Amino acid sequence: MESYVPSLRSYLMNRLLTSLYLLWLVSTVVGYFATINYANQPYDMVLLQRAQAVADQLKLGSGHEKLEQVLELPDGSDPVMPDRIVYTVSDSEGRKLAGTASLSTPLSYRRSKIGAVFSNGERGGEKTRTVSLVYPDPAGVRVLQLHVSETTHQRQALIRGILANIVIPQLLLILLAVAAVWYGLKKGLLPLERFRSEVAARARGDLSRLDEARAPVEVRPLIDAVNDLLERLKQVMSAQQRFVADAAHQLRTPLAGLKTQVELALRESDPVRQQRILEYVLTSAKRSSHLIKQLLMLARNEPGGQGVEAFLPLDLEQIARECTMHWVPFALEKDIDLGFEEAHTSTDILGDADSLGEMLGNLIDNAIRYTPRGGQVTVSVKHDGSHVCLHVQDDGPGIPLEHHALVFERFYRVLGSGQSGSGLGLAIVAEVAKRHDAELRLESGNGEAGCRFVVRFPLAEKQLELSGPRS
Ligand SMILES: Nc1ncnc2c1ncn2[C@@H]1O[C@H](COP(=O)(O)OP(=O)(O)OP(=O)(O)O)[C@@H](O)[C@H]1O
Ligand SMILES: [Mg+2]
């Protein structure tokens, strides 16, 4: 799951700072132990030499040991040699035989074979380092142990010095790296900031493209996507502007006519002529109301109107049958034989019943309206593999081929039919088809008269398979 990133800069800074901090911690710990190891080596050598000097003076291992001898050893009072040295000679059981302190680290004879043994300890609240040596006498009767111990002031001072020389430059280096990263991020994110201010400073209706050439390569896909969106938005907005302008223009003409006719009727004193004018008024009012009805229908089915979430599984055949029945009285009025052919198989699709009713209504209305008296109109629903096809066929005059692509445009009408209309019916049909993912075709020719509108819908089960069940 993707986590939410509040700010790219703080996210990257946090990540880098954490890594740098961990790195610094590890290198400090490793450096500390390495320093102790290296600092001990030369001091241990010196301590061993001192222990050997003590052993020489006491003649340990010679058989003529001088254990009562008083030795002069550094007592820590010299500021150049601040460490105090003490020693103990003991027997193999650890009993003290001589010395300036009681250091008891009993050593087995066996362990002494590995040579000097160094150990850390504490005496009188001070840290100490002790070397232990074993001296068997020439007769092999006795074993003497010598422990020489010194305080660790000099060692500690050396370790502190080395550590300060490692840790402080490292800390400075990390601070420098942080500053460099912060500055780099600020610089790197500058193009995004520039795009932000460019977009913010735009005029309200400015949907021109953003200049992706000035963006870093990583940001270009984002700018491209925004440009695509702007392009689509521009198209939708200009289509809407055109539509509003067209609609206003289309409404103005009948309303202006209405106003003139009403004024005429008001001035007319002859009741017969007044009656005739009022009949014109009624016709104009009917046309205006039809235009408004069509406009509303179109707006409802446009992209951005109702979404596909209103779609339900429904039987296209049933909707087509009911709609055809509704139009029978109008067909009878014009002496048109309006027929319906069933599919005899499942015709379930996912859709919006109201919109589909409006689509069918417009297709049947056209077929009845533009087919001369005595003609024939057939509505049929057919199964076609993974699709359901809705056919509305008539044997009227048909639509000339050069108008085929244009009749689906808004307000486009083929002149000379002698019928009135707003030119929106087929535009509504096209929008409903698009909303339902259906393919819309106008077929004619093949030696037959009239025209056949075919709308090919995907079957509900196929759509559900593709998109998963809808909630
Ligand atoms: N079945 C048809 N037979 C012949 N011509 C048709 C047929 N259907 C549509 N047309 C032609 O296509 C044009 C556009 O039809 P459309 O339904 O979009 O508008 P309209 O019928 O003029 O107006 P509206 O349907 O909005 O009242 C019509 O003017 C008509 O000339
Ligand atoms: Mg029509």
Written description of the protein model:
Its EC number is 2.7.13.3. The chain has ten helices and twelve strands. The protein has 471 residues and is an alpha+beta fold. It has three domains: 8-161, 2-Layer Sandwich (Beta-Lactamase), CATH 3.30.450; 220-301, Orthogonal Bundle (Helix Hairpins); 308-467, 2-Layer Sandwich (Heat Shock Protein 90), CATH 3.30.565. The longest helix is centred in the first third of the chain and has 50 residues, at 8-57. Adenosine-5'-triphosphate binds at residues 294, 362, 366-367, 370, 394, 396-399, 407, 413-414, 417, 421-427, 451.
How much strand content do the residues show? 15-25%
Can you tell me the CATH architecture of the largest domain?
2-Layer Sandwich
Largest sheet: 5 strands, antiparallel
Average pLDDT level: 86
- The CATH topology name of the largest domain reads Heat Shock Protein 90
Radius of gyration computed on alpha carbons: 51 Å
Number of domains: 3
Task: Give the overall shape.
Answer: rod-shaped
Placed side by side, the strands forming the largest sheet appear as: 2-1-5-4-3
Question: In CATH, what is the homologous superfamily of the largest domain?
Answer: Histidine kinase-like ATPase, C-terminal domain
How many strand units?
Answer: 12
Order of helices and strands: HEEHEEEHHHHEHEEHEEHEEH
